[in-house]
Amino acid sequence: MADSPWAGDACSLVEAFRSGERSPAEELEATLRAIDLSNLNAFSFLDAERALDRAKRADISQPFGGVPVGIKELEHVAGWPATDASLVFADRKAAHTGTVVERLTGDGGANPVGMTTASEFGGLNVSVTKLNGVTHNAWQHGRSAGGSSAGSAAAVAGGLVSLATGGDGGGSIRIPAGYNGLLGMKGTYGRIPRGPHAYMRPNTVVLGCLARSVRDAARYYDVCAGYDTHDPSSLPKLAGSWEANLGTFDLKGRKVMVDPRLGGLDIDPRMETVIEAAADSLIRDAELTRVDGSVEFPRLSAQWMMGNVATLLADLGDKWPSCAPALTDEVAIGLFLSQSVYNLRTAADAEALRVQANEAMATILDGVDFIITSTNPGPAFAAEASTSSSENSFIDWAKASRLAHKAMRGLLFGTRVGGSLAPKMPSKLLDFVSGKFPDLVSMGALTIPANITGNPAVSVPVGQVDGLPVGMQIIGRHHEDALLFDLARVVERERPWPLVAPAAPA
């Protein structure tokens, strides 16, 4: 009997099943024991009885046959809780199973163990909610696992499962991958279907996984990517195998621009040093050609976030605004703020900024094949924190006291009334608040551009700061996901990263 879960990648676990070194049933038992003993708080729900039954019947000839996996809390599995990580929906059950979960567990053969924790509605890149409490970084207890795919990252890096699902609408795969030392791939928009019942706006969300290796993520693509009638934005399945094609592309001479700050964003200087060194190594190992220059994107994070809450309001329906006290303070404040400042003029400004972002990305990638930058502005911050910055925080001010709450509500009501008389005022106020309280837009500022433009981007572990992982982000052209896999594979081959956090059980 295995004493602890498999410490290798998911592909090697399948090989162990096929060779008889391990069985799906004993692996699942080890997984359930480890979850029970873990202090990471990575799972919000376990389906142990059915998982044990599936393990006994596992078909190990399938790509992930018998592999225990975590399913991100924002995805639906029929009969499981459908909480969206919120107290508002604490008692709701899923009536259907998402396409990607059906593919992963059907033709893929994976064994879903339970739901991994997420930030409420996927709205923040933190790992704390009123419903589930705090999820901890696998490398250091008390540090954030990131978000929104917090539990998935902690579970995989923490040695509980070798693979877990994730979603990335503004960095929610790459950010926790960077914080936890994992491979985090956000494919070209539409690469993996989001159906059924997928919202069309804001056209930024890409599903994927938190993986220990490049081949795990590539095999996940083989199993889950491809068109689905329930998601009109999904892309056709490409010929050939993502996994089999690893290492087959000629990277020599391809051009790359290195800009750790992505156009001047404020990041920890130590992160910049690590990224520059890792980029130099990759350029040398893959025989790339470095092109001087810097990236210049319009700063549209605030406008983008304001527009995103339309789908949240659709989810809440007539529960809003009476449900506000049950919501995470940051989510409630975001909803109030959005209702006050988001009007037709704000939407127009946001759309104009998005066009500018598309043009900026296209112009850069007309001249180079890849952009290398940092995934996160610094190492993982405090697990209980609501933002990655503790200084000059709008959120902290807004929730500091009842008086501040009332002041904010009054201010926002005045803004809504004023906006009807002067339509440009909310947009100008949003720009002002963004400058005054940079925490509103700094979280995810390095990752959001690739979501806005739909480009593929991957976070690759490349080192540490203060003993915590650093992720290097590589952005590529639309539909050239395979080239990003190959670049990540070069890093993995030449400078392999720990598959499980040193602090996790061996």
Task: Describe, in plain words, how this protein is organized in 3D.
- The protein is globular, with a radius of gyration of 22 Å.
- Helix content is 39%, strand content 13%.
- It has a domain at 10-250 and 481-494: Amidase signature (AS) enzymes.
- With 506 residues, the chain is α/β, with parallel strands linked by helices.
- It has 17 helices and 13 strands.
- Helix 4 (99-105) links the parallel strand 2 and strand 3 (111-116).
- Helix 2 (24-37) packs antiparallel against helix 3, helix 9 (301-316) crosses helix 10 (329-341) and helix 10 packs parallel to helix 13 (402-421).
- The strands form two sheets. The protein has an eleven-stranded mixed sheet, sandwiched between helices. A two-stranded antiparallel sheet has the order 4-5.
- It has helices at residues 10-19, 24-37, 48-56, 99-105, 150-157, 174-180, 214-224, 269-286, 301-316, 329-341, 344-367, 394-398, 402-421, 425-436, 439-442, 448-453, 481-494; strands at residues 43-46, 68-72, 111-116, 128-129, 133-134, 163-168, 183-186, 206-211, 255-258, 289-290, 370-374, 457-465, 468-476.
Task: Please outline what is shown here.
By secondary structure, this protein is α/β, with parallel strands linked by helices.
Layout of strands and helices, then pairs:
Blueprint lengths: L9 H10 L4 H14 L5 E4 L1 H9 L11 E5 L26 H7 L5 E6 L11 E2 L3 E2 L15 H8 L5 E6 L5 H7 L2 E4 L19 E6 L2 H11 L30 E4 L10 H18 L2 E2 L10 H16 L12 H13 L2 H24 L2 E5 L19 H5 L3 H20 L3 H12 L2 H4 L5 H6 L3 E9 L2 E9 L4 H14 L12
